[in-house]
């Protein structure tokens, strides 16, 4: 029977040999896969099949992002306080300015003695209020939770159904795959046997 230190050393070299062999096989496989990704024939079918297999997941991810990020921002932007009041005020100002810059209206109102300028002032004030109220009413209707959610569902579905013959999408997916392969290669290249305490045998 062999002494235990010899058995430990033999096991160490067997593990080392198996790790190096498996690393070479994995790295060769990654290199072959990279070559397929650069070949226009196999690259296109790979991207198409990857997207086709994951359309439901893509749609679910986009919808989740829209619901958690976009919906609150839209509601915050158009709320009665903050951004919504700024938008409403600007709409009111625009209508008021439009009424003030309408020469026909001004001419007709000037024909009314004494009350003409008062009517013009009141009309501009009413126009301002109408502009604000229209913005608030539109926001309330357009940002109704059900309507907003159905819009986000439609957007997510549209993104998931995107045509795969898209250069920007192709570049993005290729970049993600390449980065993933590079990280995987880096992990495979770490020689675990160098970190084992068995080296102190």
Distance between the ends: 19 Å
How would the global form be characterised?
A: rod-shaped
Helix content: over 70%
Give me the number of helical elements: 8
Strand content: under 5%
pLDDT < 50 runs, ≥5 residues: none
Main sheet overview: none
The structural class is mainly alpha
Mean pLDDT: 80
Gyration radius, rounded: 34 Å
Number of strand elements: 0
| Helix-strand sequence | HHHHHHHH
Comma- or semicolon-separated keywords:
201 residues, mainly alpha, 82% helix
Can you give a write-up of this model?
Helices cover 82% and strands 0% of the residues. It is an all-alpha fold and 201 residues long. Helix 3 (55-77) packs antiparallel against helix 7 and helix 5 (103-110) runs antiparallel to helix 6 (115-142). The longest helix is centred in the N-terminal third of the chain and has 35 residues, at 4-38. The protein is rod-shaped. It starts with a helix and ends in a 12-residue tail after the last helix. 5% of the residues are buried. The model has no long low-confidence stretch (mean pLDDT 80).
């Amino acid at each position: 029977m062999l002494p235990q230190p010899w058995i430990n050393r033999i096991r160490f070299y067997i593990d080392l040999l198996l790790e190096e062999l498996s690393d070479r096989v994995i790295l060769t496989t990654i290199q072959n896969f990279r070559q397929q990704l650069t070949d226009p024939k196999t690259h296109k079918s790979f991207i198409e099949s990857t997207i086709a297999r994951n359309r439901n997941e893509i749609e679910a991810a986009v919808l989740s992002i829209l619901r958690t990020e976009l919906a609150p921002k839209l509601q915050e932007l158009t709320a009665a306080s903050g951004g919504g009041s700024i938008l409403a005020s600007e709409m009111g100002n625009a209508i008021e300015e439009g009424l003030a810059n309408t020469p026909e209206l001004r001419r007709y109102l000037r024909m009314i003695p004494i009350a003409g300028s008062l009517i013009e002032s009141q009309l501009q004030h009413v126009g301002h209020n109408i502009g604000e109220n229209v913005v608030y009413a539109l926001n309330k209707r357009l940002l109704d939770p059900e309507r907003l959610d159905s819009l986000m569902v439609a957007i997510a579905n549209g993104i998931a159904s995107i045509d795969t013959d898209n250069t920007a999408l192709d570049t993005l997916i290729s970049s993600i795959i390449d980065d993933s392969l590079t990280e995987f290669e880096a992990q495979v290249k770490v020689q675990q046997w160098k970190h084992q305490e068995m080296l102190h045998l």
